[in-house]
Automatic annotation (TrEMBL):
Keywords assigned by UniProt, alphabetized: Heme, Iron, Metal-binding, Monooxygenase, Oxidoreductase
Residue numbers spanned by region Disordered: 384-453
Keyword presence, tRNA-binding: no
Organism: Mycobacterium kansasii
Cofactor(s) named in the record: heme
PROSITE patterns recorded: CYTOCHROME_P450 (PS00086)
Superkingdom as given in the UniProt entry: Bacteria
Listed Gene3D superfamilies: Cytochrome P450
GO molecular function, one term: iron ion binding
Pfam family membership, one: p450
PANTHER family xrefs: P450, PUTATIVE (EUROFUNG)-RELATED, PULCHERRIMINIC ACID SYNTHASE
Name of the protein: Cytochrome P450
InterPro entries: Cyt_P450, Cyt_P450_B, Cyt_P450_CS, Cyt_P450_sf
Amino acid sequence: MAEVATNDFDPTELQGGLLMQVENVHERLREARARHRVMLGNPFTEVRAGQVGDFGVTVLGYDECQTVLTHPDTFSSSIYEHIMGPVMGRTLLELEGAEHRASRALVSPSFRSALLERWRGELVEVVVHELIDRFAPRGHAELAREFTFAFPVQVIARIMGLPRHDYPRFQRLSIELLNVVYDWECGLTASRSLKAYFTEILAERRRNPQDDLISTLAESEIDGARLTDDEIFAFLLLILPAGVETTYRASGNLLVALLTEPELLDAVRTDRTMVRAAIEEALRWEPPITTVVRVAVRDCELGGISIPAGTNVSVSVAAANRDSARYPDPDRFDPARKNIAHLTFGGGPHLCLGMHLARMEAAVAINALLDRLPGLRLDPSAPAPHVVGSPSARPPRCRSSSRLPVRDSPSGSPAAPTTLHRHRTRRCSATPSRGATGTGCPPRHPGPDATTS
């Protein structure tokens, strides 16, 4: 059986490959939210009231963000037709009303709970343990390079039923497609290559159905309606940012939170009932996609701001998830907090279709790492990881750590704490201070939602 390449992934490729100054994103969002629940422009570029139609508005409060997400008759996701349509085609992201309900009904069976449970044992656990097998014997790893990206890519490839020998090519094209916000032409080329690849696979599945996602989509039917080839292609392309990049970033952010608090990591290792709460808290505390976008389709008012029809509305999930009006001590990573609900998976009719798969993948990954690496700790000889995002004229859309160096320390001999540990506050804020460096570059085009909606 062909070896599957997994170590050729450089996390900086999903950040544009450039180093630049990283601002304290959550501090900026907190300062802005203290002044406005809804603001003209965004926390990085404020504008005058008369320019609202040109620069849009940013929604920072939890309740206000939830209002936008749950009122598609006023705040439409149709804006994604212009943002990502040339790359992905017409996806669920941009559909509204009856058309969205019909298309979602056709793809929803692909994520039913019984199927997810099957995938857990037959696909997800197998992939996770195969990857861990490669670095567990040597006792150290760079998880961002060797694990957190590779496992969701391989899971999606297996769910789709792709030939194993195609995994390296699929991973490379996935990286190039996901990097579309930094290199538009590269993303378009990857999209065309993936569509050509899927065309052959889909044609074969229509002739000879298999037990995989592409066959399920090809055979899905409601009241005589079936998905067209273009609709299936669009859904398969959407799965890459929704099912790969967000899982990669979310699992990495969870690992940063746990690894930089060794006592908390040990508590989760001892009591696995904490894993689910830790996953939800990580999704709240550091959402992998910080911002989703809507467009006002009628004149309206929100948070005391008049919003003309046609205005772009940025929903700052990162700000909403740390709204002190909803969460006590919101900057602290605390899996024991009572109110752990968040907006990371969106809301309303576009609530993330794949959220249960994402949660299941994260749980399998964390449990497997804790089982296979009982002395899992940050590598004290390597720079401490930070969750970073790209500062730009608009809020950073993606946040994660570009490195996760770890060691499997012998039982009873944990790795020495890094400087990050010794100087860490109880807030467990993994965002570096002003002047720190990280990866990222201002996107030329807004990225897609964190949802397969």
